[in-house]
Amino acid sequence: MGANSSSISELPENEYLKKLSGAEPISENDPFWNQLLSFSFTTPTNR
């Protein structure tokens, strides 16, 4: 999730999904949110 892609077979081991769906509350200031919602795009180059 976030900056990394996941396949369906990897979802049960995904630490972000475990934390998001876990019983422990996640603070609004937790860096988890920045990692979960970060995206990386490769800009196209024309040569």
UniProtKB/TrEMBL annotation:
<comment type="similarity">
    <text>Belongs to the dymeclin family.</text>
</comment>
<dbReference type="GO" id="GO:0005794">
    <property type="term" value="C:Golgi apparatus"/>
</dbReference>
<keyword id="KW-0519">Myristate</keyword>
<dbReference type="GO" id="GO:0007030">
    <property type="term" value="P:Golgi organization"/>
</dbReference>
<dbReference type="InterPro" id="IPR019142">
    <property type="entry name" value="Dymeclin"/>
</dbReference>
<dbReference type="Pfam" id="PF09742">
    <property type="entry name" value="Dymeclin"/>
</dbReference>
<keyword id="KW-0449">Lipoprotein</keyword>
<protein>
    <recommendedName>
        <fullName>Dymeclin</fullName>
    </recommendedName>
</protein>
